[in-house]
Amino acid sequence: MNPSAIVYTSNTGTTAQYAQMLSKQTGLPVYDLESATKQLERNTSIVYLGWLMAGTIKGYKKANKLFSICLVCGVGMSLAGSQIEEIRKTNNISNTIPLFTLQGGFYLEQLHGMNKLLMTIMKKTAGKGLQEKENRTKEEEALLEILLNGGSRVSEDQVKDVVNTLLY
User: Fold this and answer.
1) Helix residue spans in 40-112 (DSSP H)
2) pLDDT per residue over 59-113, tens digit each?
3) Which of 78, 93, 144, 152 could form a Cys-Cys staple with 130, CB 3.0–4.6 A?
4) What are the backbone dihedrals phi and psi of residue 43, each rounded to the nearest 5 degrees, phi first?
5) What's the rounded Cα separation, in Å, for the pair 26 and 2?
6) How many CB atoms lie within 10 A of CB 114?
7) Vertex 29 angle, CA 24 and 32, to 5°
């Protein structure tokens, strides 16, 4: 694996934070997807990071048409390492491409329009359902906590496996 750049799409900033962390640790230049389309040549080998919404990695389809993606990270509210197979299937990511999920954050106040409406409904319905559920899993506990309290879960610890995959 020999990527030339890190490309990302971010909604509330947590994916951008992870992209910057990876850049710092690998020495690869980092671009948001819009800038990358103007500055990188077609089929450039990249690492792609995108925020997750309903299992879809935002910007992945566009990035995949333009660049040669050698590693993907989806950033969402769930615990790092969760939902890999569902996300791989939903986004049609080949089994030959390493896929990671990283826990980002939840900032309802930073969302706008339909995204804000959908996440407000999710917070009420899923949050209520999780609160009422007995014997919640570790992942359900983490999701409930972030839904109720919001904030960032970004940490360098979460990118260790990504960095190891890229460098070794």
Assistant:
1) 60-66, 84-91
2) 999 999 999 999 999 999 888 888 999 999 999 999 999 999 999 988 777 777 8
3) 144
4) 70, 10
5) 11
6) 8
7) 105
